[in-house]
Write a structure and sequence with these properties.
145 residues; mainly alpha; Cytochrome Bc1 Complex, Chain D, domain 2; 0% strand; globular; electron transfer activity; iron ion binding; Cyt_c-like_dom; Cyt_c_ID
Length: 145
Amino acid sequence: MIFSTFRRLALLCCALGLPLAAAASEQLIKSKACIACHSVERKIVGPSFKDIAAKRHAEDGAAAAMAERIRKGSKGQWGPVPMPPNTRVNEAEAQALAQWILSLHPASTAPAQAPQTGSDQTAANAKGSPKDQPKEDQAKPTAKP
């Protein structure tokens, strides 16, 4: 039953052009009872998924640590209420859930920019500043009305 549901979900995502991991993880959130204590936007018993993403997105190994906390539970991470272990979630599912939660942080959706290497910086400097360019290459200032 779960396999056929996942298969249908995968086909639907492919047909609609949706990222499979996101749709599958949203389905996992619902099927593994995460929404009993969490929601995307607001705190219920536990913190919202967006709050978790905001707190954890910059940590090294955040997804792996979150996956472990999902499976084994945690204490003292978000106040006095402990998160119980979720024995219904296997390791791969926990990893998918953690990745999905981290994807909710705005920084994770921003396109990564490659750092300039020495040769890239040299090429940029070789062009010079706009004042070094011929007048026809410079943008003309517009008069304000």
